[in-house]
Amino acid sequence: MQLYSFFNSSTSYRVRIALTLKGLPYDYLAVNIRTGEHRTTEYVQHVSPSAAVPALVDGALQVSQSLAIIDYLDVVYPEPRLIPLDPVQRARVLELSNAIACDIHPINNLRVLRYLQDVLKVTPEQKEAWYRHWIHEGMTAVERLLVLHGHGTWCFGDSPTLADVALVPQIANALRMGCQMDRFERAMAVHAFASAHPAFAQAAPMQQPDYTS
Amino acid sequence: MQLYSFFNSSTSYRVRIALTLKGLPYDYLAVNIRTGEHRTTEYVQHVSPSAAVPALVDGALQVSQSLAIIDYLDVVYPEPRLIPLDPVQRARVLELSNAIACDIHPINNLRVLRYLQDVLKVTPEQKEAWYRHWIHEGMTAVERLLVLHGHGTWCFGDSPTLADVALVPQIANALRMGCQMDRFERAMAVHAFASAHPAFAQAAPMQQPDYTS
């Protein structure tokens, strides 16, 4: 298996956690999205039509979109399962994962921040306020979901699921950007516990071959 | 079953299509997101912790996030199946669905456009350019995915999947906002075919009880 990844991309981070939790070895193919390597004709034509990281190659299959990749891994390599089979547990895990993957991450990712800066010419303070606003909105919803439905040491129970796989990179991003996260008590407790897990630690940005400070 | 929905919300529209395709009757509970009904304490505490539409109630389960809702419906009411079981077909469907649900819709939804307008004080022209930019970026990726992997009259084959359920509302939005969509030939062909399907037509904004022009 090959994973096209950027160390600091939180969607790549999600897939790295899933691969590591499942004990699946992979070649790490670094794509520097800061310098636009994901936009080259070569990459778009042959790897990711979405012009994005991550992208997974598994035999004849080449697929992009982190949640689609993790669902694929969960179907083909089900141990340990990250998306529960029970309909209600599954709904809870996907609800939280999508609250992060749809409602938080896309609005604060690199290309949007660059548009704000380069096209709309916002000030650094306005850009920072934007980032914090969507973290606050989105994490408030995530925290409510965890308080209502969460249990155990992970988001939902005593083993990691896709919800944890989505949560940890998002919180890591928010902390890196200096957001005040203490108020999200349950989310931060899961983050502290999960970050110390070997698979999560191994998948962290600083442990990747393309890491730069 | 009850569905909390707003006629013009494309994520509500997705769930309405799924419910109608599966022939599942439901009570339509209108939530006006333009006037902030999704932000009332009552709604957030008792219906959607994410303060968003859609939200589904099915017996004891209350769940938000359109893709989580549709996955739940697909597990519990599998006919007709919208997310294929075959791992590769499934990956293709989820890849395209997430390319819309994560990479296009969230950046152009009401709350983001309002932030641009009310907080960043962008001009109407800048807001329109923003909208068109993300439609163009996102639909370029969607079109590439369809050209590479699409086949049949629907996105992937001869029956509707989650990919069509995500695509039709997104294109309807883009057309309503006056985006130039002709260049996305394959996507527009699927849209034309799918929009005429009774379940898609019945789920359209204009057919909803809370529709206003």
Description:
The structure is a homodimer of 213-residue chains. Chain A is 52% helix and 8% strand. The first copy, chain A, is of the alpha+beta class. Chain A folds into two domains: 2-80, Glutaredoxin; 87-199, Up-down Bundle (Glutathione S-transferase Yfyf (Class Pi), Chain A, domain 2), CATH 1.20.1050.10. In chain A, strands 2-1-3-4 form a four-stranded mixed β-sheet, with helices on one face. In chain A, strand 3 and strand 4 form a beta hairpin. In chain A, helix 1 (10-21) runs parallel beside helix 3 (66-76), helix 1 (10-21) packs across helix 7 (162-176) and helix 4 (87-101) runs antiparallel to helix 6. Chains A and B meet through strand 4, helix 3, helix 4, helix 5 and helix 6 of A and strand 4, helix 3, helix 4, helix 5 and helix 6 of B. Chains A, B: This is Maleylpyruvate isomerase. Chains A, B: Residues 1-81 form the GST N-terminal domain. Chains A, B: Belongs to the GST superfamily. Zeta family. Chains A, B: One of its GO terms (molecular function) is maleylpyruvate isomerase activity.
